[in-house]
Amino acid sequence: MIGGQWRPANKSSGGPAIWERTHTFKTDGGIEELKAENLDYTYPFHRQRFVLQDECRNAVIRCDNSLANQPVFKSPYGKRRSFKIVITSMTGGTPMEQAVTPKHNDNSYVAFTLPQLANSRTYSVKLVAKDVFDASNLSISADGPAAPPSGSGQSPAQQIANVNLQTMSMGAVASNVSTSNQGMVIRTNRVIQGYALRPDEKLLYEYHFRTSNYNTLPDKVTALVNTSTEYTGTTATLPKEVLSPSFTGERFDTYDLVGFKYGPEGLLKIYPLIGVQDAKSDLWHTLFAKPILYDYYAAIKASDCSELELQRSVIWTSNGFFPTTTYRDHPDPVGIPPFLTVNFHPLGPLPSSILSDSEVAPSTTFGMSPGNWSVSADGPATGPPITTRLQYKTGEWVVKDYLRLQTITPDVISHCGPLNHNPDGDDVVNEMAEPLRSYVIAFQNTPYKRMFNGVYGAKFFFYPPPPCAQSSIEPGDVVSYSNGIATFQHTAGITPPRWNPGTGTVAQPPVNQSGIRTP
Length: 519
What we know:
Distance between the termini: 105 Å
Number of helices: 7
Largest sheet: 5 strands, mixed
Number of strands: 26
Helix content: 10-25%
Oligomer: single chain
Shape: elongated
């Protein structure tokens, strides 16, 4: 600065003075191996317990975006890269291999198929890349092969040399120990089978899961044993009743009951694999709730004799002077008749967490046999069966619907009555039409029935994960899911009434227009 102004700096010998400084840095080599932060999810899920093999054999490793241009999926300089999945039991056995081809859309993913696996066993899944020398990928000039790009690894000559350094893919860790005891030599052998990477192979990702003791959900649910059923309710005429059955059997894990969140801030979710509903197979449903309440309500909707609906939602409006409350039967969270009324009890045992570090480590327990040690075939223990507890809240909804139908019935009669019938008269214009008339009479003559003693059912559904998700092709298509029913006893209710038409024990079922009584 000269005289308060910036001027070019010059050397004493003339010419501009230049000051230089060099900073050396290296760019990131990119993603060379997959880590948890690079993935959306896998199926089977990472450290999942109790995988039901026959419910979904479409497995996947799905990345959180496209990694097509990352080193993890690109062939190194002068090589051709192929991929395979290796599934290995943590307690030993022959590795199961299958070639795979990564796909790259918005997300890169590797799809593979679960082979037939042993039950109740922990497995390792490895994504392995194999790089073989490929002269077609080399740039050849008069001066010889071009040098590999910086950081690309070995020279072509070294790559060719390594082709001859293959090792068996079946690896073994073995030790022989000989001891002498009073002249008698005792020799023990210890062998753990597994998978050993070859020099031309690279492990890109590994995770673990454990198979269920059952291959399908129906098999697992059928094996559940009802140990007790807790009853919560009163002896009032209109009690709010809740059943809490408990079962012993194989547990359900976090992915079964809670689901899995992924994506930015966990905003995306895979819903729980297991759902539970009321099987609607008990006598209380078939003799009372369905024919007296819900068949009647269906007839009201079909007749257009009342605009009043069941209470599934409430809308409050006002004209500025008087507020108005409107009850609607939609959106319907529980079904009509209610069946989405069963869930896992919040005070019951928590779902099993994911596999621990010790459960995914190779077994260190060896069973002794003459002359050698052998690996235990059962693998890490998952603990004894624990109680699965449910909340069965159908009764709470049925009593609400019964009260609401008591309000709707006078409105039905006022719009489509009267109920009186003159068998000798010819004029039926002012008479309520069948079968609605018989439904109204049956409802009026049947007091509310507490839940009957007997056998009830909880229906468990398997909701497939994304690789096996079913989709509806046309509107109205019904998508079926694998399901099984666990039954339980309710002994604190009332004795089921016998079906004695005309005695008043149970109201007679309505008569249809053909003169036939419906069940």
